[in-house]
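Note to self: keep these together.
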Amino acid sequence: MTNAFESSAPGSAASPEQARAAKRRLRSLCQQMRDELGAAYQRQASDLICAQIEAWEPFRYAGVVLSFLPMRGEVDLRPLLLKFPHKRWAIPRVVEGPSQHLEFHSYRDDRLVRHRYGMLEPDPTLPEIPSAAADLIIVPGMAFTRHGYRLGYGGGYYDRLLSGGTHAVTLGVCYQALLLDDFPHGDRDVPVEHVVAERLGVVDCGQP
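Structure:
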């Protein structure tokens, strides 16, 4: 998908101000597009994406996986968490305050709490799993580019997580309709190494 979503200079970095303004417009458009896919398609696409990830070698060999629970129509990866209980799964919890960041805790389906913004998070008393221990980090996003850049919700949590440095393989997840050729990105945007979509499968974003 191209056109309205592309920057005027594909592949180039926009200024921080340009990137923020463009992303505000894109979020509204992408959320509308994701809603228009409908729940039935989202379920079918999620199942296909789970199958693509399951067959992917880095996933098969990963012992510690940082993942996420779906919100606002995101891809649902919970079937993977259920099918591979021998892996050490962790899901994020938003830590608010002066240094807002994500903490990852062991996944327990019976130990989830609802954040005031509506998403489910792990009980904070569950064991914390540092990102440095991860073999694979599965990153949610409203949209991704084929170069691995992510359109999130504006909090910058995953950019801060990924910029901290990790040996883990990073995989962005989105619907094919929201895998875009390009959109403006700033210097602080950290790309993922791979992206998966329901029809395309897992693709290498060409990052070092």
